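User: Fold this, then the next.

Assistant: Folding the first:
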Amino acid sequence: MKFLILSIVLMTASVQSYGSAGCGFGSEEELKSESRYFVQSFSNLNELNLTYRSTGLSSDGKKQRVAQIRKRSFELQSLNAKKHHDKIEKLVLKVLEQFRGHEFLKPLVNEGLLQADISEKNCDISIACTTAEAFAVSFNKELLNELYLKMGPSQFEFVLRGIVGHEIGHYVADLIISVDTKNSKIADYKADWLKYHLLVDAIGMQLTGYSTLDFSNALSIYENLGDIPDRLKCLRVLTSN
């Protein structure tokens, strides 16, 4: 079964060496162990740093920003509840609701976040992307339609789980990185986008249950897009160790 996960992070620099050291992880198990740490740490969060992408805000500014995020999320929730959805949109909402029931994602769900934002204007060339304005998962409706026509309903739903797991992986990674100042590895993720994005991939695997091999096969469909060639080489190196 073929499926895809499109990256929203584009790298301009390439990795010179694709040994495990050049990928930031010594082995597949190290990558998976780190992703488990992030997912578990995320599930234990009592408070979310929803303003981590907004720097220089005063205390009142942060409160206002959080209120705006919650308002936009509520608007998306209300829109999705009222709108007459076509079959593709229904599958998107079904898959996202499955994730919203995941025990590890309760910190986001309890805040009313992780809503779907479906529009022809979303995400430029990507099928899905994150939306910090509402901590939602945004989808490009036109690209979703194209994917559905290529794959049919059953395979399309499988693809969606991978896409959503990857995008939510960004939130999990970013929120932990913003608060876990005691972890000596955090600086590496901030400085090394390839290592960061491999971590996001692995968090997506944790949330979806995909194997590294499945994920590599998914990425290989778009092996010339953005940073995917670098990630593919690293995943292959790590699984071969």
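Now the next one, as you asked:
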Amino acid sequence: MGYARFSLVRAQSPRQKYFLQSSGFLRYNDVMPLVKVTCSFCNKKYYRPSGRFNEAKKFGWKQYCSKQCQTLAKNKQVTMSCGNPSCNNTFKRQRREIPKSGVCFCSKSCSAIVNNSKSVKRQKKIRICPNCSKEFTGRRKYCSPECYPKRTVISKETIIAEIKEFFKENNRIPFKREYHAYKMARFYFSTWNKAIKAAGFEPNPVKFAKKYTAKDGHVCDSLSEKIVDDWLSSRKISHRINVPYLGTKFTADFKVKDCFIEFFGLHGELKQYDFLMKEKLKLIKKYNLSLIAIYPKDIFREKRLSQILGSLE
């Protein structure tokens, strides 16, 4: 909606009026009567052509004395004070941006100061240095670099000898997760499989790609299952393998009396495997069956495996 423009040139006679109007100097404001109007924003009295006044009244438009008043009237922002008591800043916010609590902050720092003061501060965890028994705080294991133990350098020959000794004791090659100097083996041989070959053995195949026969004659789907089977047979625990769950299509790796034992070797690696694993767990929960779940991290430590299966002895 435009604003009235008042011409500084006024017609004195009809001929002069016709000349000014035809030449463009005389506007409609000069010929239409003016009406006294009150500004909808600042309540200032001003004059406006009657045509514009009637048009605004017909369509229900608000009328303003200037563009500045029109702009300020459309601005719906609210002046607020910062919610931080130590900050006296004032700022503007749109009504839709004001939360139900009515508390706003002028900056992120003020918001953090107030919210942190309401939350309970965490107590620093005090650690004891295993070397000098000194108390300290932080995530480190030792209080200072001086207390860190000196690293022992392991040679190639030592690594090869330890792999051979492990094979002699366990009748299998070690996994990389259970070997204490795995990083040193990678440093010397670039890969763990090359270290195994340097010791004169064939590397472990891909998981579940090869069948293994346990000491009691059971054929296992993986080397990890063979380790579990040998653990049970070495302690003379009677067990069965590939036992179905209550006549369903799902089978358990082992069963000792009424307890099922599952080795979830591919957990977190295959989506289909995780789906079938969840279905098994739902079935076990539905019929309230006894289950012992074993994961790859439990195989590589014999003590850990004994803790999990110790209740069967």
